[in-house]
Amino acid sequence: xxxxxxxxxxxxxxxxxxxxxxxxxxxxxxxxxxxxxxxxxxxxxxxxxxxxxxxxxxxxxxxxxxxxxxxxxxxxxxxxxxxxxxxxxxxxxxxxxxxxxxxxxxxxxxxxxxxxxxxxxxxxxxxxxxxxxxxxxxxxxxxxxxxxxxxxxxxxxxxxxxxxxxxxxxxxxxxxxxxxxxxxxxxxxxxxxxxxxxxxxxxxxxxxxxxxxxxxxxxxxxxxxxxxxxxxxxxxxxxxxxxxxxxxxxxxxxxxxxxxxxxxxxxxxxxxxxxxxxxxxxxxxxxxxxxxxxxxxxxxxxxxxxxxxxxxxxxxxxxxxxxxxxxxxxxxxxxxxxxxxxxxxxxxxxxxxxxxxxxxxxxxxxxxxxxxxxxxxxxxxxxxxxxxxxxxxxxxxxxxxxxxxxxxxxxxxxxxxxxxxxxxxxxxxxxxxxxxxxxxxxxxxxxxxxxxxxxxxxxxxxxxxxxxxxxxxxxxxxxxxxxxxxxxxxxxxxxxxxxxxxxxxxxxxxxxxxxxxxxxxxxxxxxxxxxxxxxxxxxxxxxxxxxxxxxxxxxxxxxxxxxxxxxxxxxxxxxxxxxxxx
Length: 582
Description:
Elements: H1 7-20, H2 26-33, H3 37-44, E1 55-58, H4 68-83, H5 87-90, E2 94-98, H6 104-117, E3 122-125, H7 131-140, E4 145-149, E5 158-165, H8 173-186, H9 197-202, E6 206-209, H10 211-221, H11 228-234, E7 240-244, H12 252-260, E8 265-267, H13 273-276, H14 291-300, E9 304-308, E10 315-320, E11 326-328, H15 331-348, E12 357-361, H16 369-374, E13 378-382, H17 385-399, E14 404-408, E15 414-415, H18 425-441, H19 446-457, E16 459-468, H20 474-488, E17 492-493, E18 496-503, E19 508-511, E20 516-519, E21 527-532, E22 537-543, E23 546-557, H21 560-581
Parallel strand pairs: 2-3, 2-4, 3-6, 7-8, 7-9, 12-13, 12-14
Antiparallel strand pairs: 1-5, 4-5, 9-10, 10-11, 14-15, 16-23, 17-18, 18-19, 18-21, 19-20, 21-22, 22-23
């Protein structure tokens, strides 16, 4: 009988039995005993697996969930990787931060105690902090690595761990591979020891940090302005509403604005971590989560509304629409406004670098392309998200051959300086407010400046749609779906002819008109992108640890109404195609 059992099922049963016979906390043991068969399969069918930004997973019991044991598993492997580099690396510290989600603090503490048990000193933030402050602190403290526990805009059932290298950016694929190799050798995290907290503190292997790094981070932010004159003139009349969705800043955002001279900064209520567990996905680009901020903005007649995800490393911008309401901009619109303002300001100061680098991720609008070309900037694409953007920032500083100017992704992550090599929502917020103050001083608004960009480069519109998978085998299903889309996608979408197909999985771009292919000089990614006639496009992407497929559609047209109509037509045709395949 045993010989006929599926090997995968055997492995699942072995892992399940291991956990049932281990000394688990009562809340995990209760969850384990209440599991149904399908839940057992989902929670144990694979071991923890790191991706390019670390790991994102549902919280719960099992090897395929994030819990104290999978955290121990990852951090023990990370310890082995650091120790393998010798005593110099081992004697440098690791900095750990976390957000306001449930379990964040306990996960961070478990990570610290595993590392301390391996004789690696840890600096643990005393309260939740923004991810950008973690990226800053890694370089400021000359740390060997940084860990951030958060899942950003994802719903409360998820949690995650991002690993930062000593360069202050997300670690490379080769680094991830080394850590994953050690994880595979360990087996599971059930037997990994942690150093008692009292002993870790008493021996100096664990230290709590916060105030000094906050001060240094705010001082760094004081270097943000490109035009201090704009802030001096308008800082007392610029009304800004901040909406940190269960934010981690501990007042960092407000303090940074105050340090630059803004006095009319208003903030919506920041709820505690208990509320996060009951909240909808805290995505600042979802209109419904910004409604309280809009209510406050209308009350005080705010100039702009700035929304943040819980890590405060992603930003959304809402501006007055000229009709008494507020318009939520998509990330590419905000990126275009920021780059335009950077170019204007730096050209005025005669320090815009010729051939400077602008980096965007693969499912972003082309709204910035013409602007970058007009001003002698090189726009490149990263298939590795902010891992690739951070690596390019480090490369520019290391080689000195080109200057990094700006980086952004489709979720509202922005990179503006060079010291913080990750998404920096606070830095971006300060520059957005300065930009708005500058335009207000000139009798204009952010929205009017956006319209000017459209007049010059054409209208752009885009939309992001998430389709969820419920089945345990979602990864296989999504892979099949991607294969079929790549083969069966129609030549006419939204009334437009498809002209190019980018298959980021195997690094191929296919000219659909001339029927010839060339290679992409990018690292592989689980994404496809179809270019349509006239600059419109659509793309699909799957993320390894999240059971969903992401659809992004973009439209370009000289006229506003036609652009929006065209976007609707493209979206309708693409959704129909996907539904017919599913």
